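Predict structure. Chain length: 223.
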Amino acid sequence: MVDVSLECFLPGLTVALVEVSGAQIAAASDDLRQRCDQVARTVVEQGAAGGQTRRAAIRNLLRSGGFRPAGRNKPAQEYLLRTVAEQGVLPPICNAVDLINLVSLQAGLPISLVSLDRIGTSISLRIGAAGERYIFNRAGQELDVAGLLCLCAGQREDSEPVGTPVKDSMRAKVTEEDRHLLACVYASAEAVSAVELRRWADDLGNGFQQFCGAVRADVTILP
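Prediction complete.
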């Protein structure tokens, strides 16, 4: 089980962690892709859960740490919404990532997905310090995480940012070799009830078992 430390205070911050064991990373099944297409159509027509109120609450949450969540640094679920609005579909990547993107788009919440096989099970959440950054794509582009809520490998002075509500690092991204995963759903209590957040987390856990062959999915809600 992951050992999680919450090392920051942001007003309204609430997080759902879904720890997944025994996942099999592969191309998404036809069933999962059909669900992705259906959700993409629905969200384009009706919008994501929570609408503009939730979108604003997530942005305000990230601003409270000193980060500016706009432009290329907008929250991940906003990028997904723009993608489906422009392309009509969620682009296929792999089963685990497609599942994360499906729930993130539908819930209107950003979600990180990292490999615990490579970053270990000591995890913390804190605000990025000045000068901290990581590579987030194969082109070597970097995200400056100063002031941004970060999911970190390790705790306290030994922690290293590997995921955020904006983009996840290349170091922690899931590959076909990975079996032990962690999904982190970032939310604001101002716009998402505890019951709803738990439901989205349970949907993720069930999805990992159904579409990724996971043998176990454990949910933890913070704080």
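Summary: The helical segments are 30-46, 51-63, 76-87, 95-107, 116-119, 194-212.
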